[in-house]
Design a protein that fits this description.
The protein is of the alpha/beta class. It is 29% helix and 16% strand.
Length: 380
């Protein structure tokens, strides 16, 4: 099994005002100086104060790497055809003024073509890249991107920026959003503005928190939204504007609290338990599905507003099945999307010593907030 060896340490947590000013590459260069050296060469060479940040772009395929039938066939194309190195080269020389960019090809498939073993290996690959890079950008398809980003948010150990991006139109059509999305994702990653934010998703000039974001439309370029809370910020040319932060940023100075318990370097992909989702609907009869899942060795079931009888639940629990509940609607807040709840349950079961601990982790991590604080009230 590939193992990610960490040499990075979280940089000091920044105030909101500081985050708004972090669009310039000097911020990341200064942050990189606080990290432990990762190679003998880097130990011997002090980086120049004006050195560009190092950004590794990892390509996994998707629409952004697609080739179209014609230059105007926006919906007729083959995903995952172009190499990420060639796509980065298309952005030169402009991108060379933003960062020192290295391209790595992880694979080249539509997002729906990846399984949990691939998620496992991609997480380790991101952490390996962050041993030497200041930030990582990952390109992937958009259909399951909301799951990609949440898995990485839960598993990547480094606090350095991790930015996912993609496109709603293939690279080769007129007016493709892929070029701008990739360029802006590198700008965002290089700025360092999302240090300690965990993994974020960047499309259509906006970046979103991994937990909150979801895909709302199959064709429009503004498809990704974070209802109620809204986007974390925006990328306007060379300027990054951060308007809010995910709650985990409050623990930036405390690595043991900032990181989740889910360190993949200590397990193998075969250790990941099977978890499934049941969606409720009017007249649904889910007992048969519950019992079939239990017989098949499923360890966890996300009940998304489904009607499951007490008898079926008890029978499944006797076979070791753990149930968690969410809603099928997409409203934000503590309500995880069913597909994201499944990932959190899967990891909780994989690492917990018992089912009670898994349930506690699911509740705590799934509902993380900024901690309450007292506001002094003037006397009189």
């Amino acid at each position: 099994m590939a193992t990610a060896h960490r040499t990075d340490r979280p940089t000091p947590c920044r105030s909101t005002l500081t985050l708004l000013a972090m669009a310039f590459v000097l911020a990341t260069a200064a942050g990189a100086g606080a990290q432990e050296p990762t190679t003998d060469r880097e130990s011997a060479e002090a980086r120049d104060a004006d050195a560009l940040p190092r950004v590794t772009v990892i390509g996994t395929g998707g629409t952004i790497a697609g080739t179209s039938t014609t230059r105007t066939s926006f919906q007729s194309y083959r995903a995952g055809q172009l190499l990420i190195a060639d796509m980065v080269d298309d952005l030169r020389p402009e991108i060379d003024e933003v960062a020192e960019v290295t391209a790595v090809q992880f694979d080249n498939r539509p997002s729906g073509g990846y399984g949990m073993e691939d998620y496992f290996e991609l997480s380790l690959a991101i952490d390996r890249a962050l041993e030497t890079a200041d930030a990582v950008v990952v390109t992937t398809g958009t259909d399951t991107m909301e799951e990609f980003v949440y898995w990485m948010d839960l598993t990547v150990r480094s606090p350095k920026p991790v930015v996912f991006t993609g496109a709603m139109r293939p690279w080769t059509v007129v007016g493709s959003d892929g070029h701008a999305n990739l360029f802006n994702a590198i700008v965002l990653a290089a700025s360092g503005a999302t240090t300690c934010y965990g993994t974020v998703l960047m499309l259509n000039d906006e970046f979103h928190a991994a937990k909150d974001v979801w895909k709302s439309d199959g064709a429009r370029m503004d498809t990704f939204i974070s209802r109620r809370f809204g986007a974390l910020g925006s990328v306007d040319g060379p300027r990054v504007r951060a308007h809010r932060a995910p709650p985990r940023v409050q623990h930036c100075d405390t690595p043991e609290r900032w990181r989740t318990p889910f360190d993949l370097s200590g397990i193998t992909a075969e250790d990941l338990p099977r978890t499934e989702v049941l969606i409720g609907y009017q007249g649904a009869r889910l007992d048969e599905a519950v019992l079939a899942f239990a017989d098949a060795g499923v360890r966890g079931i996300v009940n998304a507003a489904g009607g499951i009888s007490a008898e079926a639940r008890e029978a499944a629990e006797e076979k070791g099945v753990v149930f968690v509940r969410t809603q099928r609607l997409r409203s934000g807040g503590h309500n995880l999307l069913p597909q994201k709840a499944r990932l959190l349950l899967l990891l909780s079961l994989a690492f917990a010593e018992d089912d009670e601990q898994a349930q506690a982790w699911f509740d705590e991590i799934g509902a993380m907030d900024f901690e309450a604080f007292d506001v002094p009230v003037p006397e009189g």
